[in-house]
């Protein structure tokens, strides 16, 4: 009898330890923190205003973040390699001007779109080449190409907003009904790109190489990974993704705006940081970045519904970024 009781107590102790270990592993998943923050933000604004938790408003939040969210996908891949891209918003704006002006000028819209995306990819390739071949800091390189793309945008557009676009360019801004809510095709494209990015980074050799280079580039090189080729590819693919973000922007605004994207580089970095991706590279989940982009969108939308001045939205976003970076720094010290 005594042996049976002792065995039962031991089994329960093991079960408690196993459950505790599972809870700990779940709590340390990189997406749990951003998801919890997103749910808390939604709960707060749901209790603060009746207009927040409606299908139409939530669809609007996704529409408002689809451009920055897509930029954040490319930014995530770059940051996972311990780099950074300050030029993504400016490159995207130049891509939109190229595709809209060529389309309005008579070039078939699909070809104009490809050329616009190609221009963005070329900026990415230039960034990657300068970072790897010339061994220049990514911060400096992309700061330079930011100014180049900004200048080319205004020169090529002649500071004029391009209107009268063909329907092909604005197709992703169209909506379809989902229940009682209208959803844009662009929102679906953004979500699909997050799923593709998640699959590539998690289940392919290329994705594992990205994490390996960001975690320890020398060890990755010694293990046989061509770090230079990988980095150039990463920046080029990121550039192409910025081109897609530009197409989503054109679909939402129905114009080619030379003033677009001026703060989108910082917004995309904010989404990445809030999504739990380490600025030191090698750690983070792209699904967390989706949550990070939605956190920014929810906070701005919720504060706007509450009638809070836009400058306070910027203030709160800045505080959240500092907190997220502080948490990342503490986690990095604990790992060391």
TrEMBL record:
Record-linked InterPro entries: ABC_transp_permease
Keywords: Cell inner membrane, Cell membrane, Membrane, Transmembrane, Transmembrane helix, Transport
Membrane topology of this protein: Multi-pass membrane protein
Any GO CC annotation of this UniProt entry: plasma membrane
Cited CDD domains: TM_PBP1_transp_AraH_like
Annotated Pfam families: BPD_transp_2
Record has Lipoprotein as a keyword: no
One MF term in the entry's GO annotations: transmembrane transporter activity
Entry's transmembrane regions: 26-47, 68-87, 107-126, 138-157, 183-201, 230-251, 271-299, 311-331
Subcellular location(s) of the protein: Cell membrane
PANTHER family: ABC TRANSPORTER PERMEASE PROTEIN YPHD-RELATED, ABC TRANSPORTER PERMEASE PROTEIN YPHD-RELATED-RELATED
Record-given protein name: Monosaccharide ABC transporter membrane protein (CUT2 family)
Taxonomic placement: Bacteria, Bacillati, Actinomycetota, Actinomycetes, Streptosporangiales
